[in-house]
Automatic annotation (TrEMBL):
This is Geranylgeranyl transferase type-2 subunit beta. It holds the Pfam family Prenyltrans. Residues 36-339 form the Prenyltransferase alpha-alpha toroid domain. Binds 1 zinc ion per subunit. Its cofactor is Zn(2+). Keywords: Metal-binding, Prenyltransferase, Repeat, Transferase, Zinc. CDD domains: GGTase-II (cd02894). It comes from the Eukaryota. The keyword Metal-binding applies. The keyword Transferase applies. It catalyses: geranylgeranyl diphosphate + L-cysteinyl-[protein] = S-geranylgeranyl-L-cysteinyl-[protein] + diphosphate. Belongs to the protein prenyltransferase subunit beta family.
Length: 350
């Protein structure tokens, strides 16, 4: 039997609703290992492109443009946008563009939706859309490439010419096209219908219709609906309950039931809760401590959980999560775009 949404509690019963009027003071009083190691994180991100003699550097070439977005976003939120050279950043991004307008993960790699979205986000953050017009293939060609990946029958999007479809690609298309002012190039209503078809009885969303709910896919669907102005389709209370239940005893969040906590879900879950106005349904202080406990305070970087190796992915989403938690000293992050709010205000005027 499916639960009756009218009987869902205003606040999930197993979570204490916390007040954070003195949250800044509580951060200041944290022990040293639970203070954000800002300078170490900046140096860690700066060092990532200097490891070209390491095997791992070349094993991750297929993530190069995505990694630049993760690192740059973290630096902007840390208040150090100048830590990576702007001119070199723009040069690298443009070197990844193909004639069809799409971007590959690195020079010589095939164009892909995810790399293209990262390229647009990077250029937006460094205020370089003019360079895309004068030195690259131009915004219109990027928009044409993204629009070509929409399945006009179902409304969803493929990642590349080979046809793999996923709600990640749909959200990516909405993200990049809206930043470029070109959302009109795609069938938004058809895409919204597809997202609605991905909704589950528990309020969550899967990768495709009938697939199980997952925190990452929920973010993509909720954010895409937010961009489309269709949050009216979301079962807010049911989804809020499912998301709040992702917090486990140690304070971290997981992606789905019976899984371990992971710092990256500090973004995927928390941003979704922010979009539906339910962040007060989790214990924010415990989540903050979990993220801070997962950082390497000496060498910099944040890992998936305490004691593991750091990487730029978890560093980005850990810092973005802390920004959503109003950690002092961080720039505000936009919960829909995972970019600084200042960038979104400059580009979109909101």
């Amino acid at each position: 039997m499916q639960p009756n949404p009218s009987k869902l509690p205003t606040h999930p019963p197993h979570h204490k609703t916390l007040k954070f009027s003195n949250m800044t003071q509580s951060f200041i009083s944290l022990p040293q290992e639970l203070q954000l190691a800002t300078s170490a994180h900046v140096k860690y991100i700066q060092s990532l492109d200097s490891r070209k003699d390491e095997y791992d550097y070349w094993l991750t070439e297929h993530l190069r443009l995505n990694g630049l977005y993760w690192g740059l976003t973290a630096l902007h939120l840390l208040g150090h946008p100048e830590a990576l050279p702007r001119a070199e950043t723009i040069d690298f991004v443009l070197s990844c563009q193909h004639e069809n307008g799409g971007f590959g993960a690195a020079p010589g790699h095939d164009a892909h939706m995810l790399s293209t979205v990262s390229a647009v986000q990077i250029l937006a953050m460094v205020d370089a859309f003019d360079d895309l017009e004068t030195r690259g293939r131009g915004k219109a060609q990027v928009g044409k490439y993204i629009a070509s990946l929409q399945n006009r029958q179902t409304g969803t999007f493929a990642g590349d010419e080979w046809g793999e479809e996923d709600t990640r690609f749909l959200y990516g298309a909405f993200n990049a096209l809206s930043l470029l002012g070109l959302l009109h190039l795609v069938d938004v209503d058809k895409a919204v219908d597809h997202i609605a078809a991905c909704a589950n009885f528990d309020g969550g969303y899967g990768v495709s219709p009938g697939a199980e709910s997952h925190s990452g896919q929920i973010f993509t669907c909720v954010a895409a609906l937010t961009i489309a102005g269709r949050k009216d389709l979301i079962d807010v209370d049911r989804l809020g309950r499912w998301l709040s239940e992702r917090q486990i005893a140690g304070g971290g969040l997981n992606g789905r039931p019976e899984k371990k906590e992971d710092v990256c879900y500090s973004w995927w879950v928390l941003s979704s809760l922010e979009m539906i106005g339910k962040t007060h349904w989790i214990d924010k202080e415990k989540l903050t401590n979990f993220i801070l406990s997962s950082q390497d305070t000496d060498k910099g970087g944040i890992s998936d959980r305490p004691g593991d190796m750091v990487d730029v992915w978890h560093t980005c989403f850990g810092i973005a999560g802390l920004s959503l938690l109003d950690y002092p000293g961080l720039e505000p992050v936009d919960e829909v775009y995972c970019m600084p709010k200042s960038t979104i205000k400059r580009v979109l005027g909101r």
